[in-house]
Amino acid sequence: MSTGIFGKQGDHMKKIDTERWERRELYDFFSGMSQPFYSVTFQVDVTELYQYVKQKGLSFYHALVWLCTKAANRVENFRYTVREKEVWLLDERFPSFTELKKGAAQFHIVTMSCGEDLQEFCRAAKEKSAAQTSFVDTSSETDELIYFSCLPWIELTGLTNERDFDPDDNVPRIAWGKYTEVQGRKKLGMSLEVNHRFVDGYHVGRFYEELAGEIAHLNPKKNGREKCSGKRMIFYGALWGRKGSEKNLKSGTAGGREQDEKGKESGNRMLFQRTSPQ
Fold this sequence. Notes:
Elements: E1 3-4, E2 7-8, E3 13-15, H1 24-31, E4 37-45, H2 47-56, H3 60-73, E5 80-83, E6 86-90, E7 94-99, E8 108-111, H4 118-131, E9 145-151, E10 173-177, E11 180-182, E12 185-195, H5 201-216
Parallel strand pairs: 7-9, 9-10
Antiparallel strand pairs: 1-2, 3-6, 4-12, 5-6, 7-8, 10-12, 11-12
């Protein structure tokens, strides 16, 4: 069995009986495609998050990594993985994010457990990043991760990720750009890249719901969640895997790092090709 910093294979997962799996037909359908991956970019209101981290003296970037990880783990389809041609369901995924140290021009990649406390995660992430001397801890490069990055200099409208092609790769790639003021609210463009063998538009909508709810809950006076049923969410193109239905998206490459106290992020363009180890 393969091992990593999060334990041996089987500790955080259960095997799926694909013969009885309700997703079997969809899985087989998209498995026959030469390129089963797609990317969706959408606006996220981060006003409550911005106010919260200012009040608590936390990193906006680290806080959003934690919130996105929590949201993704609540959607089962984001936690599927394939090992030796068998489908498994992970108990949880862990954040792996690019980071720039102050004054540096080259980024490094920090991978760690998420934990249950937002403030503690932000403190631990800051400490681990400051102490890390290597570019990446290769022992932590497993298929249990979520890859995070950002482009802090632009308003993100679309993004693609570099990868070694592996149809079994179900590691979500999440990135965002700088936030801007829109009618008194702070919003940013967020990109999510997933594998259609496991994740459909419905599950992207679920992720958005969970993330919006997590952010809203940071403000005790605003405790509601946006529901997909309340705001119709339509995803085109690659969601359906049909030739001719694809929509053109502006694309970029991922990179970036930390949003500072002035509300601006400082970062660096990611030029590192990552794969999802089996």
